[in-house]
Every structure is written in structure tokens, then in C-alpha cells.
Amino acid sequence: MQPHHSATEPALIRAATGKQGDGPIPVWFMRQAGRSLPEYRKVREGTTMLQSCRDPELVTEITLQPVRRHGVDAAIFFSDIMVPLAAAGIDLDIVPGTGPVIAEPVRDAAAIRALPELEPDSLGFITDSVSMLVEQLGPVPLIGFAGAPFTLASYLVEGRPSRDYAHTKALMVSEPELWDELCAKLARISTTFLSAQAAAGARAVQLFDSWVGSLSAADYEEFVAAHSSTVLHRLAERFPTVPRIHFGVGTGELLAPMAAAGADVIGVDWRVPLAEAVRRTGGGHAVQGNLDPALLGAPWPVIADRVREVIRSGAVAPGHIFNLGHGVPPQTDPTVLTRIVELVHAEGAELRAEARAAAQKESVR
Amino acid sequence: MQPHHSATEPALIRAATGKQGDGPIPVWFMRQAGRSLPEYRKVREGTTMLQSCRDPELVTEITLQPVRRHGVDAAIFFSDIMVPLAAAGIDLDIVPGTGPVIAEPVRDAAAIRALPELEPDSLGFITDSVSMLVEQLGPVPLIGFAGAPFTLASYLVEGRPSRDYAHTKALMVSEPELWDELCAKLARISTTFLSAQAAAGARAVQLFDSWVGSLSAADYEEFVAAHSSTVLHRLAERFPTVPRIHFGVGTGELLAPMAAAGADVIGVDWRVPLAEAVRRTGGGHAVQGNLDPALLGAPWPVIADRVREVIRSGAVAPGHIFNLGHGVPPQTDPTVLTRIVELVHAEGAELRAEARAAAQKESVR
């Protein structure tokens, strides 16, 4: 058993593991390391996305930038959802303005069986990046990052970003055994990729199932849940002190099965109030979210009110990690993000405590 | 009071008005008149979208094509969401591969106040198209079509298709009075456009709020519901025998307030089972939907099973109009749509009757 270091345990970890109580609300932003920051655009000049993700010094610098600038309570490992697939040897490119493009879309048994495994040996650049980061981050926890099997499958099968995932869904429903074979491979890749980060010092991990919100709950449970569950449970076995955050956009219908797949923290987009997400997931999970990122261009008093609303709504959860309901849009004025961090730090714990007390009173009545 | 013509009343109208019982399930497909049909691509050659929508003979031909080919139970008026805005005199274009582009995005008080009204006199081409269509359709009902205020606003404010509607939402939350002024204007335009179609013989109307699923329920209720309600209630007053269908994609969180805005039929995308949509809307509304259009490329037995599942799930509604959960994708093999129509016609009423009987038994127990 691990010793209990509550005094030094970061707010993020306390919130993720249900030990937040009336303590501080940690805050970070999905895609905080990225195009909203001029210092990011500067260091990325002249390098492709995949090159950047493979360069430990650049990964470290980019991951640290929003921590320095905003004072967020966690760093999110700078990577791309395609990095583990590229590291496994799949021929792909990230085309600016388009997104990931796979040289040979993977649509039949032969292509699925020919997919390489991800060998831990090929992840030296990940281990190096994480080790360097952990040293420089000091007490600020690093969150590891990987795409979930459905989302990885959607890129491989479609061959490029898609609006409706028609090829992916057709494979899924018409050849369920082949689909399971594909997703089992991708679950191994996700697990290996997250494990490398956790082993090198990531204190939490986030499994992104970006596009799974395109499925109904019935299809999610039949074709996807087991594979995400494999990733989350293997991580839990190997790294029992590393909490697992699980998120996808537009997943209001899927919150319960996604939480049940083995997440400690369920990420929620802006469409579902956090209190409702707590209700849907049964009350046992911490929540992460969920300010609407499209509102970051609104005047500050409007944003501040929304931030407070999110905090009050999340107070019924055993833990609340403040975040947006999706990634930071590239055109965001980064000073707004800094102000949000300041506001959550200044008022968060008190707002949460008040809302918790009010909820308790309500439930006693 | 209007005489009751139940013998000649089309299945679509019976389903929409809660008189379906164990009778036939009407079927049509959103975007059935469009790029999935080779005969459509042929007649559209050399004409722009806006030209096509303004040409009564072409509108009639395109609207009739899927009725002839598939034997659907309703025609959907071939138009574009931007047509009433263009008819009002707003400078815009529909750019192939991009979508609607507004010459001057509408983002401040001056621009909103300068927006023209839609004069019924400028809708002669609509009256002509609908009249011609109604004559040629005979007993098959025509469904009129318009965009709802939020979706029209999103195009005007963003100036082009958007992923996150950031400008629209910023205006909405930061200048709510100005937003209301804009939406009140757009509600008048939608009402005028739908009224012209109903007056010329459309037997039902569908108010499309394509992008409203980007909002939380709280924002929908605060900023949008009243404006959609204005359109739906004015239509109901002027054309009490013309049922109103209301649909948006990704609106699982909004079904109750959208239905309450004054719809007879609530359109449901594929993420929410119809039975759950009935529960969320209180049981008083007919439902339309909701086969996942991304599955139209799956093998026929899979599609057939899904069609039967949708019918069984919709049986608890007082009326069910079979449809997809969103528009027909352009790459769809149209023979699949014809087979779906045949299947719904062959098995629909019996499947629905069985499921209704089972549900009744369940509720008695």
C-alpha cells in the first residue's frame, strides 16, 4: 500500500480521487498548450505537428507554457491523438487545416491484421519528454493523454476527419468480430502509450474519446464500452494511484456507461450541467468541466457568472476539476483563461463549500 | 370547424396529429430531394443552389423525384435554409463545398436594424412552386420547410458555417436585448416563409433548428425558445390544420423545451431512442425519426433490423413518422432508401401494433 501524502497531494489528485471536500478546485484547460498562445505559435514555427510531438525539449517547453502563463493546477502532456499510431509505424500525416490523414485507410480484415503493435521500445521520446517535464513541473501534476479505441478507429477507418463516421459505423455494425479485433489492438496501443507516460511520472491520465458522441448509448455499450474499459482497467491495475479521466464531446447520452467503463473522473461537455452529469453517473464519480468554450469571447462579467454557475453545479460531485466543456479554441484571448484561473482560485473553494452546504440542507429536509 | 376527412387524410397527417393508432407508419427522409439521387444531380447541372430554389419548375421536379422513386409518404419542399433571407434581400451566396456565406456578417445593432423584412410579395416563386407541386402530388402531402431563428441567426452572425458558433453565442449572452431583436426579425421571416407555403397548399411544416444542439437547455430556454415558439404559434393560429414538425440535430438535452415551444411532432436524431424522446417530452407529442444515417452503408439485414428497432421504440408515441435521424448523406445508395420505404410499409403497422399491445400490457401489470 502506498503511503497517504495528503498534505503534499495536489488539488487535482484530491479532486480526482474524491478527497476534495471543501478544499480548492483545481483548474486546467483542454488544449491549453496550443494555438491560443503566441509563445506556442512561435516555438512551433517551421516544425510539423508530428515532429513537435517527437522532440522532448519542444514537448516540454510547449507543455510548460500554459502552466507558466495561467498558473493552472495541471499540465496536459503535449501530444496528438495520432502520435501512438505513428510511433507504431502506421503511415499517416497531420495535414494543417485538415487534420490526420492515413495513407491507407483500414477497412478490411487484411488491413486490420496488418496493423502493427506499439512496442514500448519505440516510446523513448515519450519517456524522455515526461521525465524532463516532471522534473521541471515540480509540484504541478502532469496529466498523460491518449485517444480511446473508438476515436483511433474512426481515424484509421475513415482515413481522414469525418462528419458522420459512416465507414467506421458500417464496419462496426456489419462485422462486429473484426471491429472487436481492431479495437482490441487499439486498446493495447492506448494502454501502452498511457502506461509509458504514467511510468515516467504522469500523475493522472486522460483518455479522450473525442468522437464517441456520434453513437447512441446502445451502440456504445455494444461495440465500444468493453474496449475503453480494457484501457482504463489495465491502467488501474498497473498504476493504482494514477486517476483516470475520461472525456468525449457531445456525450450526454453516454455519461453513465463511460463512467462505468472505469473512469475516476468523467469529463462533461457544456451541454449537460455538472449536477445532471452527477445524477446520470450515479454520484460516485468526480466531474471535470464544463464552461462552454464558445463563450470565451463574451464580456468578462458574463464569463465570470458562468464560471460561478459551473462551480455551484459541480458541488454535488465528490470532486470537481474545473475545465472547459471542450478544447480551447485557437482564436481565444489567453488573458481570459488567466482570469478564469484567478477567479476559480479566489472564489472556487468558498462557492463550492456554500453550494455543498445548501445541497446537504436540501437533502436533510 | 373543418370537416373530419379521416378516410382521405394522409398517414403523415394522422401520425402528426396523434390519430395514427395501429394505422400505417408514414415514411419520408430529410434531404430526400438532393444529391443522393442521380436524377437530381442531372437536373441541377449548370444551376446554382439559389437559382434552383427560385425556379418553380425545377423545384417541382426536384421535390417530386424522391416521391416517384421511393414511394415516400410525403414530399419535402425543395428549398434551402437561406432562401427566405435571400428573398428578403440579404446579400448572400451558397458556395459549393463551403455552404452559405453572408457578404456582411451581422454582428452589431446597426447591422441588425438594417436587416430587411421579408415581404410576402417577394415570395411569388414560392407560391407558384407549391401550387404546381400540390397539383402534381395529388394525395401525397407536401411538407413546408424553414429554418428556425437560432439557426438563421447563426448563419447571419458567423457569416459562414461554423463549428462552435462563438460569435453567435457571444452576441446572445452579452447583448440579450439586441439578440432578441435579431431573433424577433428572423421569427417574422420564418413565419412569413412557412405561411406562404401553407397558404399555397403545404399540408404540414417542418421548422429546422439545425444547429441549436450546440446550446445547453438553460441557454435554449433563456435565449431561443420564445422565438421558435413565436413561429410555431403564429403558424398554428393561421393554419390550425397544418401540423408543425420541429427538428434539430444533437438536441437530446433540448427535446422537452423544443416540443413545448409549440410542435406537434418532435424530430429526434439517432442518439436518443424514440421511446426515451417520448419520455422526455411527456408523452403528448408525435415523434419523427430516427435511423442513424451513417448506417445506410451497412449490409441490408443490419439496416432492416435497425428499422424494426426504431419502429418498436416509437410505438409508445401517439404518432410515429419514420425518418432518418438527420439528412440523407450525399453518398447514399438510393436503392437502400427505397427498400426502407418498402419495409416500413410492409411491416410497420403490424410491428407498431404489437409493440403498442406489449407496452399496454406492461403498464397494466
From TrEMBL, chains A, B:
Q: Which SUPFAM superfamilies match?
A: UROD/MetE-like (SSF51726)
Q: What is the lineage of its organism?
A: Bacteria, Bacillati, Actinomycetota, Actinomycetes, Propionibacteriales
- The entry's protein name is Uroporphyrinogen decarboxylase
Native species of this protein? Naumannella halotolerans
Q: How does it associate, per the subunit comment?
A: Homodimer.
Task: Give the family, as the similarity comment puts it.
Answer: Belongs to the uroporphyrinogen decarboxylase family.
Q: Name one GO cellular component term.
A: cytosol
The reaction(s) catalysed by this protein are: uroporphyrinogen III + 4 H(+) = coproporphyrinogen III + 4 CO2
Extract the InterPro entries matched here. Answer: UROD/MetE-like_sf, Uroporphyrinogen_deCO2ase_HemE, Uroporphyrinogen_deCOase
Q: What is the annotated localization of this protein? A: Cytoplasm
This chain's function reads: Catalyzes the decarboxylation of four acetate groups of uroporphyrinogen-III to yield coproporphyrinogen-III.
Superkingdom of the organism of origin: Bacteria
